[in-house]
Specification:
Structural class: alpha/beta
CATH superfamily: NADP-dependent oxidoreductase domain
Distance between the termini: 11 Å
Order of helices and strands: HEEEHEHEHEHHEHEHHEHHEHHHH
Strand content: 5-15%
Number of domains: 1
Largest sheet: 8 strands, parallel
Radius of gyration: 19 Å
Length: 364
Amino acid sequence: MMSKKDSTAGHSSEASTPASGAAIPTPEAARPGGAVTRREFLELAAATTLLADFSTHARAAEGASGVPFRTLGRTGEKVSCVGLGGAHIGNQSTEEESIRIIRSALDNGINFLDNCWDYNDGRSEVRMGKALRDGYRAKAFLMTKIDGRTKEAATQQLEESLQRLQTDHIDLLQFHEVIRMTDPERIFAPGAGMEAVLAAKKAGKVRYIGFTGHKNPDMHLKMLETASAHHFHFDAVQMPLNVMDAHYESFEKKVLPVLVKEQIGVLGMKPMAAGFIMRSKTVSAVDCLRYALNLPTSVVITGCPSTELLQQALDVARNFEPLAKTEVAALLAKTQQAAQNGEFELYKNTNNFDGTIHNPQWLG
């Protein structure tokens, strides 16, 4: 059995934060040494709006709950536009509270559930598995992640996840933390992790395959290029998408257009940058969720450690309407200065969020 010491490091979902207002700085006022020019700023706002035009904002698959559904890339699967993050499921003081949050999400129209083999020493998967009893598994599009790069490690972690989640299949299995330029070749090497996952898919244990990462958009592009070289097409890709990412080492600018073009499902995570955007006092939690939903995302995954924050996410989803160009520009203006050096996106430029850096044995 692999050690899972310090397994809370590197979790990718985040808690939503109650809404708060903020003043709007102008682009001219936010121009330190390396800041973008006004023209570059306006071009960024225009590009963001253009990308949003590709999104499935229409409420075609909206259920009685009022939560809009979107299509997961070329899979054709309909998933709720907001998803329940798994890292915070397991942090509640009691198992019953975790189960209550998960079932409330499913009862109120969220069908996309996020998790990972390493979250909270496996506790997040165990509690989610218990929540999925009594017919709740049928309501869920269940995603989890594995860290294993070797065939043996990937197989072991997948089997443990299936057992904890009390299911015979995972709807979407993702390779977690592609945060090293060497990860793509290691995953696709002969006899490595991808072979294990493809075998599991053939056996009916996995329906779709994706990958995640939070470090640098070039690593995502390398993973996509490596997949193409091996004649493989990912079903989904998960990455940080938020109003600060647009200004710094941007997944939105570099990776998102590729995913849209290739019809790969877009899983936005860290809409509040793991809560750090709230510390910047530039925009509200609701602003953050609306900005992420305005992008061509299939799902925006957000952590909801309480029923209050779950309700906030549900309210934003149910009331969401595409943002006007002026609204996008205003949000980008609010965050422009604070976002310049990645101070509030520490998962990009520190190892504080890198579970597999702190626990390399998870890779196999």
